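Predict the assembly for these two chains.
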Amino acid sequence: MSRKEEAPIGTNYIENLLESLNLTAGDFCELLGCDRQRLEGWRASGSILPGPEADLLADATGISFEAILSTGGRVTPSPIWQKARPHESDEVSALAAAHARILGARYIAVQALLGSASNQFAEIVRGMRESSSVADRPEDQAALASQYFLRKTGLGDGARPVGEVIRGFLRSCGFVVLEIPVRRAGLDGFLTFVNSGGIERPLIVANSYRTTWFRRNYVILHEVGHLLDADPSASIFDRGIPADSDSERRADSFALRTLVHERLLRGLQASGLRIGGADEHELAALVAQTHAEVRHIARAAHLYGMIDEREARNLAEREISKEVLEAATPHGACLSRAAAAHGYVREPRARQILAREKRRTEWPIKGLTVPVPFVLAVKDALDRNRITEARAAELLMVSEKQLAKRFGWQLR
Amino acid sequence: MIGASRDPKWVVCDSDALLDLSIALGTDLDTLLARFGSAFYTLFVLVEEVSDEISRRCICDGGAWPSLRTAVERNLKNRLLLGSPFRGSSTDPAVVEYRKLGRRLNAHVGAGEAYAHSLAIHLHGTVLSRDSTAENLLRSENLPHAARIEPIDVMVFAASEDWIPTVRILKGLKRLKRDGRLQRGSGILKNDPSRALRDFDAWIGAADRIGSRDHIKLTLVRSPQRTLSG
């Protein structure tokens, strides 16, 4: 049977899908990384999408391709899709969320192949939610959930900072944490869910475009805080959206109390570091030892009654020069030269692929930056013979030739 | 096609294997496909995922891929190469099963390879592929896979049937070798020293001086390809 003789599947599901998702043809092509000619071909023939495109669409929208076909394309968009659309006229958020979902789904699929996808996140989230009553004030709920989180995870022990270990810890519990650049400065991050083997995993995305490592520590925990919501199916952390809802106040309070927890701050004060009236070097030391931005340190110190409101306001407005911060902490180097910073990324394999150019996708979606842990997971899967080079290239969205060239991997 | 008076023998092609044939045979590829169809009712099929892969590699890799795409388009038009017969209704159980298996295999191997194996399994056909790594990986993962032939097998067969002159095939092999697409395999022949056919390079290099034992040369080129690539 030649392609021209194919029978259409009856209903033009692509038209309906575009309408349901409120997408133009151009958006759809950008979403799947296909050209207009191909899309028009599918639209005209009504034929089903090829396997890889169908999988991409399912990962991007959170709706299985079978469900799309069975409803003739009349689908209910996923919560993150619904939340991302109304705030944006330029579709950046919706497409960014969809692309992040694709990366998240692929990352978790590779982790599942490696047998390293834990389900511990479910217990932690349940415990956080059960630690308080829904009748409590959002701030009180957040305080109790934060206490539970720090105790359960052991991150609150020893008055140690949380920022440096939070990503690895969340990943080891089965959360999917991605730091990817989304070219929109107001968007800090978002939370959505990806399905892996029938389990809905929280996907936390922190926007690394024009944000610092310190900022992203807070953003990641803010999105964890949104798991306390009655309907945690999706949230978007955007500086353009008013943050006065119960949900935002709870997430903010959770992030603050977890990132700059009281024990840590009191420990630093006891060690002789001044919080109120700190000079630039002391502030840099505070940032270095809390892994948080100055404004969050100021707010936390005020919250714990260590400084008054006026002092907190003054402190929050203080700035630290790059040089002083870089001298105080290796993480400070991420402000200007992350890839070169000694000690910023410890794993030698990770250091080799830190440059964004090495992680930029080419095909089918061009211009995404895949996260370092994802690249490393793909490499592990390749080394352990769980995938072929062709699959590794597909996962990282580059050609096999580029795979060898960029990462210096010795392909068979 | 399915249900015709004679049962066709299906060969589902992967992109790299087609590229080998295209580089080695040029327009003789059309002859080869036509002869297979008319003499043995062996039909060569291209799944959409493979044809997408060819288009993509035209852009990403360049080289000989654009001429392969031209050859593929020509042969699809002339019906010497067929599109997948499993592209009908999404509710057709055969299509559903084919896609399901394709997706399972695609978790481990590239999309082209995965869907080619899936179609070949459902058609009880063979996969034309040079990727033995994928086949071994699927086997080690206890996943189903179809029987596989390599481009060199097809060329040896074409020579043995006198469809294409051996000298042209040997010249084609030289081109493949120049492109780094043939592997050295002289060590494999150690078990048969009496025939003094140890040096793979020498045999490929001697393609301009064709003698009565041309076919033996081809067979010996074929052996290392099959053995070493595994």
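The first strand of chain A starts at residue 176 and ends at 180. The two ends of chain A are 37 Å apart (CA to CA).
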